[in-house]
């Protein structure tokens, strides 16, 4: 390992859910100290901090709780890709030789209800979302409808995705939703935007996650089980607002940012989709997980129906996806969600995921997609 390689030596999580009376920064504080304990270091050892949040406009103010050491602190926000962006920036600081130990933390505290268009996220005027013309349920409902029409995906397959998420969440002591649900219960729950029902869609909530990074050649000083960052890519859309908002855009006309980010990450890491052992995909809704399976190279469009029916995406399957329950079981505090994925992958690669453990996991893959059309991919390995 060279001084420009990067290892993860500690991860921490404040469980996602609802915490009245507790601020996002306080949840972030808990996640950071959890990660520091995991890494076996003190806050004073951290040389740079990247903090991501949607609701907290200056999340780097978390240093007021962690300790005023003078550490450089930078705020990060790239929609739902924020977690991967903060991780990449913390890693790049090490790659450039600026620091030996850095930390990425994500934190958020959202109100109840679906995300609506907001000028800072979507580029649309505020009244657009306030009038109900752009809710995330609408967008994802339209998107999976088009995909189902083109590739023969059925509502029953959407229900299988959600049922898997709830089963995995039930086995995850940190998950928000910890009750397994049958496919029938999911199909018969309240429709949010056809074909998505209540339990096919994630909910905005609260929580935090943190990751401690270190020069790979020094990782042995802190842990016997470092996890190495092999690739971290971020790509934006090519077609402007039309690509983001219109389900009538031909899916094959231009690569999505997820496809771009995924191909670049595989090339940088020097691996193929078949080399990946455990997968985290953005599952804002059950349909997103299905679409992202193909966009990240794990199957062809339309093959998801048979793969999911055969149990291939289950923990014991060939393509274990969202082993911690994903967004469907954990909800989505935007700034923290991507680092929650890394928390799960690191625990899987270290063999400490308990009842959710994937056998002999050596390569982990995480993907994020968020408004206004930004995608990120991270690849980890032992």
TrEMBL record:
CDD domains: SCP-x_thiolase. Residues 6-175 form the Thiolase N-terminal domain. InterPro entries: Thiolase, Thiolase-like, Thiolase_C_2, Thiolase_N. The keyword Transferase applies. One of its GO terms (molecular function) is acyltransferase activity, transferring groups other than amino-acyl groups. Keywords: Transferase. Residues 256-379 form the Thiolase C-terminal domain. PANTHER family: ACETYL-COA C-ACETYLTRANSFERASE, NON-SPECIFIC LIPID-TRANSFER PROTEIN-LIKE 2. This is Acetyl-CoA acetyltransferase. It comes from Williamsia limnetica.
């Amino acid at each position: 390992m060279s001084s420009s390689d990067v290892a993860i030596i500690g991860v921490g999580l404040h469980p996602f859910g609802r915490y009245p009376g507790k601020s996002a920064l306080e949840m972030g504080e808990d996640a950071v100290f959890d990660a520091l304990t995991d890494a076996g270091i003190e806050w004073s050892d951290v040389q740079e901090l990247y903090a991501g949040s949607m609701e907290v406009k200056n999340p780097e103010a978390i240093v007021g709780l962690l300790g005023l050491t003078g550490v450089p602190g930078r705020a990060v926000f790239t929609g739902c890709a924020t977690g991967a962006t903060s991780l990449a920036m913390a890693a790049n600081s090490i790659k450039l030789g600026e620091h030996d130990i850095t930390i990425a933390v994500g934190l958020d505290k959202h109100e109840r209800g679906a995300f609506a268009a907001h000028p800072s996220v979507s580029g649309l005027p505020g009244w657009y979302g306030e009038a109900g013309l752009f809710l995330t349920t609408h967008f994802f409902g339209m998107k999976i409808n088009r995909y189902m029409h083109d590739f023969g995906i059925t509502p029953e397959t959407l229900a299988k995705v959600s049922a898997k998420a709830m089963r995995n969440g039930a086995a995850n002591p940190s998950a928000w939703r910890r009750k397994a649900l049958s496919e029938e219960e999911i199909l018969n729950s309240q429709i949010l935007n056809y074909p998505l029902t209540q339990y096919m869609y994630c909910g905005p909530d609260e929580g935090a996650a943190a990751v401690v990074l270190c020069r790979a050649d020094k990782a042995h000083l802190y842990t016997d089980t470092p996890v190495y960052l092999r690739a971290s890519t971020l790509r934006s859309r090519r077609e402007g607002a039309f690509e983001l908002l219109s389900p009538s855009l031909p899916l094959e006309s231009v690569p999505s940012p997820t496809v771009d980010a995924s191909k670049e990450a595989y090339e940088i890491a020097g691996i193929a989709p078949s080399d990946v052992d455990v997968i985290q995909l953005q599952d804002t809704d059950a349909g997103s997980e299905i679409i992202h399976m193909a966009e990240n190279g794990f199957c062809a469009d339309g093959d998801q129906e048979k793969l999911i029916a055969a149990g291939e995406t289950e923990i014991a399957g060939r393509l274990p996806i969202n082993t911690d329950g994903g967004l469907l079981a954990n909800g989505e505090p935007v700034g923290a969600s991507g680092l929650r994925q890394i928390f799960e992958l690191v625990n899987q690669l270290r063999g400490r995921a308990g009842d959710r453990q994937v056998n002999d996991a050596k390569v982990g893959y995480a993907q994020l997609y968020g408004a206004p059309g930004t995608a990120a991919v991270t690849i980890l390995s032992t």
